Amino acid sequence: MLEVKDLRKSFGAAKRALDGVSFSVRPGEIFGFVGANGAGKTTTMRIIMGVLEADAGEVTWQGTPIDFTTRRRFGYMPEERGLYQKMRVAEQIEYFGRLHGLSPSQARKAAADLIEQLGLTARANDAVQTLSLGNQQRVQLAVALVHDPEVLILDEPFSGLDPLAVDTLAEVLRGRALGGVAVIFSSHQLELVERLCDSVGIIARGRMVATGPVDELRAAAGRRLRVVVADAGPDWADGLPGELTVENGRQVLTTTTKEDDQKILRAAMEAGQVEYFGSEYPSLSEIFREAVA
Fold first, then answer.
1. Which parts of the sequence belong to the ABC transporter domain (predicted)?
2. Which residues in the chain land under pLDDT 70?
């Protein structure tokens, strides 16, 4: 298990970047690390990888403090991409494989496999600088994966990708997790995090404000009733509990009340056409907004 324990980090007297950040990620688990810009995600990842030193706290892998030798078994994709722009795709991936200790034949095979998995076959002999942002992201991920890491740490890997590229990268991450790799990635795409991750950590202003399996966080937030009504007047829900909003021209009432839901249904049917009526758990986006408020 990768364990991050009570990390603290300040940049000068005025800025505290991390204030007791703790979480854990098991082998085979995909962990989504979410928070606003400047919340502390990148600082945490850099400390795990040894790019920054924490003021206090500890990071361990399988119960042992992480050192340089341990980190060689990790794969890292930083937010600032670090590719050699004039190198060709295949030779670039092979080069990083050699840096991680692979033999020439091992690096060549690993590069070829990743190029196929990530849909880069047609661009294998092209210089990186000629690739689109999405394809450069794929190359960067291949570089992080080439040595078959035990832990994979990715800072905003889906940033700027089109839906097809997102699906390709997501499938690769699922495959690695199924093979026992502990995967951590940060993202602002909360719908993707909810769909892909086993557990999440929400960080705000350097503190973890929520962490745990996605289903447990949603269940803990509580079930609510959601009613969508078309052609209803803005005052149809007066006197009813809950929050009334407008989505795509429809009146939407959301409530966690224990009041008779049939009373709410009757009011909605009298007001207009009921397009949706049902109870549901909040989405990760809603939990995130509530947690960081």
1. 2-230
2. 257-259
